[in-house]
């Protein structure tokens, strides 16, 4: 269900900005409008919905209007035109008093450079939001301490912000935003000021927190890897302030909507994003309760495989049988498969990125079996599928060179002559 | 040219304005005079309350506590020297004048600075006025002060107040304008009212800069208080003036030294306060 609905949102900076809207609609570019009116188009007709409890990432390079966008959501910046509905209420039309209520109880913001008050210690900073909303000293202290525990800052309650590292300062910022238990969390490049290692750690922690809290998070970033890691859905903004594509990380990687997005995503390590679920195969399986060794042999011959997975009546995975074991059972005229079921294969869950599967898949004799939390069999992932996925988009033209070419380039003709024709044939 | 000057005479115009004020706004200046005089008398009484040795100990303790041992040592020597030279009472008079002028100056200057920081329009009006106030020779302030408030310590305080006001306004404005945008945005994003933002974020963050303004205001006030000795404000200014008019080199020098000692003490202590507020943040 949509919690936030953005409809045809425009933000234009400059003198009498509204006159630029017809020009945008007439298809004029940002540069043309800047030249004619002196106005800068920051957000260009954005329309989308953000669902309850999802992490929605708005991603764009600098100048794409993403920071402007997030500030429109809590009206730090007033949009030029359009609607922003939160729970069906248009916040663009709200007066000062209503806005204050919205900011105090409904949404909090985390800032790129933390925005902490330097003269207050950590716990007083975290209390800030509750303090301005008029909460009594004791309950707000209790809430602040709870929020600090949540972000792992116990023991630093009475430190001053400038005594903390960047990562810890941002935890204070996060705790401050969480303290008044808002429904919506706005994060403006929250991790961009941190160094890469800390950033990645904070991303993981945010994901963990989100798994517990289920807030609606709107996250702004310029870092595609971060967007792909954190986002349930991603909106990609173009340099013209227009939304280029909205979709799940996988959808964006798999089907970029236009050249801009395509160019954007081509350097991404796809294996970190594409999950086992995307590349799984269906495969025929044996039913533990009714199939015997003959059925097993028949299935394996039909599939041209030397093994088959076994499930029970509820499709819960039981194990794997090998063709030689099945043949032996047939020879011994036994009917029950139970004694020959093996468990020496790997399983994985559907949302594991394939980068985590590659090493195992290459080493393993059998394909990986995909199961969910209940152990129900969902399909297999074999190494060919993983390698095919890794290959896609990988551009290694020119890196490995045929040895005969190396020899030719070095002008080392001696001895190379005999082998060259053969190799060349293979090459072409 | 002379014709034009007859019609449009700046000096005469100013005179007319002052005349008008003395005639029709008399009650206002009387009221101001009563308030300032009352406050000044109270402050003066307080500074003369303790015997000089106890006051010296108090000053030294303040210097030690806020600044450093060096400043404390300087205060011991300096104030004992003033006492020894026999200018203790005059020094306390001067200190009361400075203190009163600075208090009234900050009461006017800091709110003006806050207003200027919030509104570009206000700042555009205030800035040329402040420039004018700062470049006008100090003596010129004495004329309207005397005309409106007669002679004595009250016009001295008023002239000093006006002369020392600009840095308080300027640095308050600067300090608040320099508060990082993200801090202001953070306050607004948590639903702070403008008043909450000012009191809980902007003023505390701007405090080191504002304190630097207070320091400058005090220093300017001290220099002006000496000049206002010419209109009978009393204190060390009188001593120096006597030194000049009666060609008493000894008196002029001793008065001068006392002023320097007081100036260094006030500067170091307020500087230390300013630094302390900066370190905290």
Structural class of chain B: mainly alpha
Which class of chain B in CATH terms?
Answer: Mainly Alpha
- The fold-level CATH name of the largest domain in chain A is Rossmann fold
Domain count of chain A, please report it. 3
Instruction: Give the total of beta strands of chain A.
Output: 16
Low-confidence stretches of chain A: 415-428
Oligomerization category of the chains in this entry: heterodimer
Beta-strand portion of chain B reads: under 5%
**Global geometry of chain A:** globular
The appropriate CATH architecture of the largest domain in chain A is 3-Layer(aba) Sandwich
In CATH terms, the superfamily of the largest domain in chain A is: P-loop containing nucleotide triphosphate hydrolases
Instruction: Give the termini separation of chain A.
Output: 56 Å
Tell me which CATH architecture of chain B applies here: Orthogonal Bundle
Chart the SSEs and their pairings.
The complex is a heterodimer of chains A (428) and B (281).
Chain A: E1 2-13, H1 20-25, H2 30-37, E2 40-51, E3 55-59, H3 66-73, E4 81-86, E5 89-90, H4 96-106, E6 107-110, H5 122-132, H6 137-150, H7 166-179, E7 184-188, H8 196-213, E8 216-221, H9 224-230, E9 233-237, E10 243-247, H10 249-254, H11 259-265, H12 276-279, E11 286-287, H13 293-303, E12 307-311, E13 317-322, H14 323-331, E14 347-348, H15 358-363, E15 368-371, E16 377-381, H16 383-391, H17 403-409, H18 416-427
Parallel strand pairs in A: 3-8, 3-9, 6-7, 7-8, 11-12, 14-15
Antiparallel strand pairs in A: 1-2, 1-4, 4-5, 9-10, 12-13, 15-16
Helix pairs in contact in A: 5-6, 5-7, 6-7, 13-14
Chain B: H1 2-7, H2 10-24, H3 26-49, H4 52-66, H5 69-85, H6 88-118, H7 120-135, H8 142-149, H9 153-177, H10 181-189, H11 194-227, H12 236-245, H13 249-280
Helix pairs in contact in B: 3-6, 3-9, 4-5, 5-13, 6-7, 6-9, 6-11, 6-12, 7-9, 8-9, 9-11, 10-11, 11-13, 12-13
